[in-house]
Amino acid sequence: MARRRQHAAHEVGHTLGLAHNFIAAFDRPRLGDGVPRPLIKLTNGRIDVSDAYRNGPGAWDSLAIRWAYTQFSGGQDSAGLAGVVRDGVKQGLRFTTNPDEGDDNSYPKASTWVNGRDPSPSWRASRRCGTRSSRTSTSARFSRASR
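^ thats the sequence. predicted structure below, dont judge the formating
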């Protein structure tokens, strides 16, 4: 259900005008990127999906919705929008979309596959929880259950 909830919210975000932000996962792990992926851990030799999908919108998404949909009082649009921008700058939020992410991108911090500022832990975790580890853990449990 968590995956369906996150995917539905992701698509509603597109309906509201939000684009993929490929630097959000670099700035704040799991706070948004192009394709929501689960955080799967291997805990005591067991696959752990207890925190697979985050709840709520990312910080950039919330800021973009404020920018697009806040109704400021008469004649205050410019000042109000400047305030939204200041909030985003204060939070350190940035935006980079599809043309600037990927292997041959113009901005290396914008990536589909990074979860945080240092890609090494994400890579090591993906190796630990990757197909082989998951398959080994799952096979062992099924083997014990079938005895």
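The radius of gyration is 19 Å.
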